[in-house]
Design a protein that fits this description.
Elements lengths: L7 H5 L9 H26 L7 H29 L6
Helix pairs in contact: 2-3
Length: 89
């Protein structure tokens, strides 16, 4: 007879080390506008999965796609602005 053994101790043994660091939390906070814009884009696509998209659905998807792209551009511009030293052109 084989005994079923839980691995709870092995899984939770390193639980204190699995928490995100402050730097990781800051990075998530910086990327939050992109994440939220992507969620809106997914919502727009999900609403059209079980039906033929209407003109309103197409506009919603286009707007969500533009917002997601704008959020990504803003994130990249912030990252480039903080990583270049001096500020000379």
């Amino acid at each position: 007879m084989n005994h079923i053994v839980t691995v709870q101790d092995a899984v939770t043994a390193f639980a204190d080390f699995m928490e995100p660091t402050n730097a990781e939390l800051d990075a998530i906070e910086q990327e939050m506008p992109v994440i939220l814009a992507d969620v809106d884009l997914l919502d727009a696509h999900i609403t059209t999965l079980d039906r033929t998209p209407t003109e309103l659905d197409d506009r919603r998807i286009r707007r969500a796609r533009r917002r997601a792209l704008a959020a990504r551009v803003a994130l990249v511009n912030r990252a480039v602005g903080t990583s270049l030293p001096g500020g000379a052109a």
